[in-house]
UniProtKB/TrEMBL annotation:
Biased composition (Low complexity): 29-52
Organism this protein belongs to: Paenibacillus pectinilyticus
Signal peptide coordinates: 1-21
Region annotation (Disordered) ranges: 28-52
Full protein name: ABC transporter substrate-binding protein
Amino acid sequence: MKRKLVTIPLSVLLVSSFALAACGDKETPASSSAATETTAAATPKPTDNTPTPITIMAPLNTAQTPPDTIIKELEKLTNTKLTYQFFPADTYEEKLNTTFATGALPQATYLKNQATFIQMKSAIRDGQFWEIGPLLKDFPNLSKLKSTTNDNTKVDGKLYTLYRGVDIARQGLIYRKDWADKLGLKAPTNLDELLAMAKAFTENDPDGNGKKDTIGLTDRNDLIYGAFKTIAAWEGTPNNWGEKDGKLQPEFMFPQYVTTMDYFKKMRDGGYMNKDFAATSKTDQQKLFTSGTAGMYIGAMTDVPTLNKDLVKNVPTAVVDVHSMVAGPDGKFAAWALPGFANVVLFPKSAIKTEADLRKVLAFFDKMMTPEVANMANWGIKDVNYSVTDNKAKKLDDEKWTREVKPFTDLAIGDEDTSGRYLGIPSIPAQGKADELKIANLKFAVQDPTAALDSKTNLEKGVQLQAVIVDATNKYIYGTIDKAGFDKAIEDWKSRGGSKIMEEYNAQYKK
């Protein structure tokens, strides 16, 4: 079967139904068993009691690959011989692209996010991955996966993936409460107050060292998971696509999108954020916060325990807090919503030759959704990595947990309620508040109306076309083009296939 090369640019990350991609960095594959690549010994043809050999390729979101500790426990619990191929998340799309093109994908292949999933749809349609939907009924735990989320990952009405669940509305503000208290500021209730906080954190010496060495907001080269999309939602911008005059139109054709660009331009021109945000990686963005330079981080509020841990190493007196209810110009709250999954895993036919072999791999993932195995993958070894109080888990050592367990947590299948794994005890008050706010945000969650729709033109040209908009958005904020220049970029998007995407989405939307 001819294998098509899946081109996933590293400069764009857009969780939309029309195009997405992400940025990259230096690659270091995992080594022996988890530290590079776990090498499975040659095994005889499996019998009923012989461990099933399974190779898994996945992105690594930690600085180092994990030791074998959790792998060995998972193997015991699932009767498998596991080979994990971990590659750094920053360059994962590039590695995925290369591995796919050479026909070397393993039995279980994780993507990175909704972006890479959308780009893989053409290969799914080419029949290069197994359809698993009809088989899930035979697995008691996989059959518990949420039907609404499954629907959002179907391709032409067929299910090829298992999903990793995600908090639907987790976006908000993480900020230096000690700075705010010193300057007499409260959590911002609207966008004007948010801008005022950024300005004060920049100009009013919040760290008290007598130097002008702080900024308000730290941001990165990501118009989705960075600050832009969250603030755009607060401005009233729809989530990727919205309805206007009875038809679906992309978010950048709404006036609120322009208002958001104006807001960021004002913040950047004033020096209230890192001026080179469009060239800033997530790692460097977070370092600006954890080093004590920036006082505001807008993104997933669930990042607060990690940011706090690294911050207090550099600034022991620092105090962080979280906030999400920032009203827009109309006085209303809004939070853009994810489609229920953060990542998916696919099963290549090049690595799994028969349905019988596929069932063995699915049986492993079915066991991964039992409470015992799910807790091992999410929390580690009891009384070594975590303890249990009132049926909730608490990490015993954050750094040890991050090193040994987090890579497997990022590969969890399903959700907390579908797998029965423990909920966590917050390590700091701000984490508990973040847990409450991500639930409160659900009342104001704005869904993407195209989440379950498909556009052939989008699959073929969406990434390249979205790069036009991302580039124009950054240029507008940087001041190198004006509104007329941005409008010209929209016309360019339309003429190169965008109008066709709109036509195809609206044809499905009306059904």
